[in-house]
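Support request from a user on the community tier.

User writes: "When I paste my structure tokens into the form, the page sometimes reloads and wipes my input. The last time it worked, I copied everything first. Here is what I submitted, just in case something in the input itself triggers the reload:"
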């Protein structure tokens, strides 16, 4: 009959780690089974390399929806880590026996909240609260330290006492609670491993979370021995995976948000290495040093009072040496002279925030520690991480834990490779490379955002650096290849969203990915076929055409953008052919914008865009009485400007423009038509008086009511003209009316002063009177200018 011993532990507890270490030394198990992700078993040798802790097993999952991630931290005083190292030294078989973390720990936020509301956790809280009352402890952390970390484990008697206490504690926590469905699935997997190991070996040691210990001891003897359990494997690396990554002490701190952690991990590191008395001395020294560096007044008398209070609290609570809770309570009672707005963060499960007293914050941060782990050089990592490191070194960029600001100018040749590197990281979603803003300082003219040459970046090798790159490695082994595939996938997902399309192609330009033009266009073809927002599509085309025309600071993006622009142009023509009816003002604006984009596309002479076909289509649109007037005007303006009317005969083309203008109903369509026409061909109004005469004739034949209806659209149409061209128009109107030079100057003069204000008030009063006459009550409560 094999001997199976199950040790229930608390993660990152030095007392539990010490018990595991001594049990392995005395029991000499032939197999050591550890609660850890079983899919990592083929790679356990990676954990036995000479790393510098803390580290973490990082698991990710992209199955069934949004990506999910989790970390399994390992410190020197983690019982799981000690079991691995000590078990290996003893020659034992080592196995992780839990489900893969990507199967159960990478939960969405909603699932995590549901898990937190389970009945078992309510029992956990109730038992903890009862024990805290019994032992006069104000938190779970203080209770744990009092019951377990304070136990003197020197010798077999100490180990037996600690094991007995842990047995009672975890049995009381779990009771007869069956656990959640997730608990049951995990425990069924772990029980199968234990049953298998018990059939193969005479002495088996199991190290698991204390919550699972009672259930496992009941379950495994009931199972028949079988083959070694098989860990579930993901479909591929894109679906899920697990890698060893560096970690930081602050990430393990329970006060920072790690639910399974212990607060003040650096203190427990000292407790593990040096024992309670030496840990207390180190903690006092670090606390005092940090507070004095932060300019906290701490006199010698305060220091003596602090030490005496900590020693007194330890004796009062039955501790052989001051523990963490004794030190913190003593610091609060001796150094703080004012009342606290909040209870101290160590008195109950809560996060450390800026609202807590700054002295207490600094004290807790001192005990958290600022160290971080380091992987051994032989640790397997995706090739992408090595390529990124080499690219950074070649560009003179050194990502570090400290955030740094980089200001790059795309006009400088030496900044281009660095900017492309950062943009490729940005495309991959590496959080440590964040674009703050782009600028164009001292530019002669205001540049469009797509052409701004100065980039401000924030670079930091934060806790997401390695995980983000590990996940991105599924796209390629090199940074450029991975960024390329990631961007193409984003364009695939963009579907019919022109904004995402534009953003993706602009990123490609800045990232130097100019070789994916045809492939990007092919990926976008399906999405563009379902896009019906011609205004948004035209805005995307305007931006990309502007970039294609101007170039990008030494780079020619034409090869990247040309095929996409052709497909957008084809889609816009198809959408414009199907427009009918006047539509809303927003639709009118979209119509004009969609036609006007061809004024920029045609000069580019894009390969695959037939200029004759485009001009023929626009001419047909301009002549179609079934289409909205603004669209017809814009189409007429573009066709005229690119010599697409009347066989390129200037006189015949101008005559056609005048004919279409005169045919527009003055009251309902003329203003909208001119709005579209002038958006693309303002010169028609100023190079001769033909259009002015046509408009004048239409206005002369209108009554007052018709004129007031048409006035807003007419004002919008002539709003396209800058001041100088308005002056030319005024001169044409003055000659048409037969005005002399004096009256012409009055026509151009702006009214000012009191008379202008009184005239405006009279016009406003007349407008309000007319509104009341037709049933628009100005006193109905609507805001000024609002339309109900």
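"...and here is what came back when it finally went through:"
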């Amino acid at each position: 009959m094999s001997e199976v011993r199950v040790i229930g532990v608390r993660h990152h507890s030095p007392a539990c780690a010490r018990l595991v270490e001594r049990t392995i030394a005395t029991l000499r198990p032939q197999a050591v089974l550890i609660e850890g992700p079983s899919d990592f078993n083929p790679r356990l040798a990676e954990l036995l390399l000479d790393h510098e802790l803390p580290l973490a097993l990082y698991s990710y999952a992209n199955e069934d929806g949004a990506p999910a991630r989790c970390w399994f931290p390992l410190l020197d005083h983690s019982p799981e880590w000690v079991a691995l190292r000590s078990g290996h030294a003893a020659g034992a078989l080592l196995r992780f026996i839990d489900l893969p973390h990507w199967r159960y720990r990478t939960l969405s936020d909603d699932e995590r909240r549901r898990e937190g509301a389970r009945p078992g956790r309510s029992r956990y809280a109730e038992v903890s609260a009862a024990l805290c009352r019994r032992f006069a402890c104000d938190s779970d952390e203080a209770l744990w330290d009092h019951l377990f970390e304070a136990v003197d484990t020197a010798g077999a008697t100490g180990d037996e006492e600690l094991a007995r206490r842990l047995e009672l504690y975890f049995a009381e926590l779990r009771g007869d609670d069956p656990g959640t469905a997730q608990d049951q699935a995990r425990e069924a997997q772990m029980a199968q491993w234990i049953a298998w190991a018990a059939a193969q070996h005479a002495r088996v040691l199991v190290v698991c979370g204390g919550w699972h210990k009672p259930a496992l001891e009941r379950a495994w003897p009931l199972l028949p021995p079988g083959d070694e359990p098989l860990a579930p494997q993901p479909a591929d690396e894109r679906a899920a995976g697990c890698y060893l990554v560096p970690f930081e002490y602050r990430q393990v701190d329970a006060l920072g948000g790690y639910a399974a952690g212990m607060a003040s991990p650096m203190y427990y590191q000292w407790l593990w290495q040096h024992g309670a008395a030496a840990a207390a001395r180190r903690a006092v020294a670090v606390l005092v040093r940090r507070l004095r560096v932060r300019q906290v007044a701490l006199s010698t008398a305060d220091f003596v009072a602090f030490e005496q209070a900590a020693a007194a609290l330890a004796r009062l609570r039955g501790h052989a040496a001051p523990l963490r809770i004794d030190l913190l309570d003593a610091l609060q009672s001796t150094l703080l002279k004012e009342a606290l707005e909040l209870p101290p963060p160590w008195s109950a499960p809560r996060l450390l925030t800026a609202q807590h007293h700054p002295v207490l914050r600094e004290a807790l941060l001192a005990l958290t520690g600022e160290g971080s782990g380091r992987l051994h050089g032989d640790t397997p990592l995706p090739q992408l991480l090595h390529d990124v490191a080499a690219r950074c070194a070649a560009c003179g960029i050194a990502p570090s834990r400290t955030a740094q600001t980089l200001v790059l100018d795309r006009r400088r040749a030496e900044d281009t490779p660095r900017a492309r590197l950062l943009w490729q990281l940005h495309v991959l979603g590496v959080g440590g490379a964040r674009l703050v803003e782009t600028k164009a300082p001292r530019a002669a003219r205001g540049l469009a955002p797509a052409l701004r040459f100065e980039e401000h970046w924030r670079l930091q090798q934060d806790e997401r650096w390695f995980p983000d790159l590990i996940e991105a490695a599924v796209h390629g082994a090199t940074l450029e290849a991975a960024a390329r595939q990631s961007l193409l996938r984003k364009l695939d997902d963009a579907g019919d969203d022109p904004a995402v399309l534009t953003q993706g192609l602009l990123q490609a330009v800045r990232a130097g990915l100019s070789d994916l033009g045809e492939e990007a266009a092919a990926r976008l073809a399906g999405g563009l076929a379902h896009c019906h927002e011609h205004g948004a599509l035209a805005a995307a085309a305007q931006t990309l055409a502007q970039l294609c025309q101007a170039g990008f600071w030494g780079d020619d993006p034409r090869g990247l953008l040309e095929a996409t622009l052709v497909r957008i142009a084809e889609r816009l023509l198809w959408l414009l052919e199907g427009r009918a009816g006047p539509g809303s003002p927003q639709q009118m604006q979209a119509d004009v914008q969609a036609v006007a984009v061809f004024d920029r596309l045609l000069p580019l002479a894009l390969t695959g865009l037939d200029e004759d076909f485009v001009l023929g289509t626009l001419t047909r649109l301009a002549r179609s009485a079934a289409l909205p007037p603004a669209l017809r005007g814009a189409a007429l303006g573009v066709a005229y400007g690119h010599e697409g009317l009347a066989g390129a005969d200037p006189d015949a083309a101008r005559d056609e423009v005048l004919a279409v203008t005169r045919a527009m109903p003055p009251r309902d369509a003329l203003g909208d038509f001119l709005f579209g026409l002038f958006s693309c061909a303002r010169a028609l109004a100023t190079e001769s008086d033909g259009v002015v005469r046509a408009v004048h004739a239409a206005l002369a034949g209108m009554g007052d009511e018709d004129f007031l209806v048409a006035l807003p659209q007419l004002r919008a149409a002539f709003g396209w003209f800058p001041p100088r061209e308005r002056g030319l128009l005024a001169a044409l109107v003055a000659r048409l009316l037969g005005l002399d030079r004096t009256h012409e100057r009055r026509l151009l003069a702006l009214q000012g002063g009191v008379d202008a204000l009184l005239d405006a008030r009279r016009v406003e009063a007349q407008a309000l009177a007319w509104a009341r006459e037709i049933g628009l009550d100005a006193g109905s409560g609507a805001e000024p200018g609002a339309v109900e």
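Agent notes: The reload is a front-end session timeout and is unrelated to the input. The chain has five domains: 3-247, 265-368, 381-577, 610-749, 750-781. The first helix runs from residue 14 to 27. Escalated to web team.
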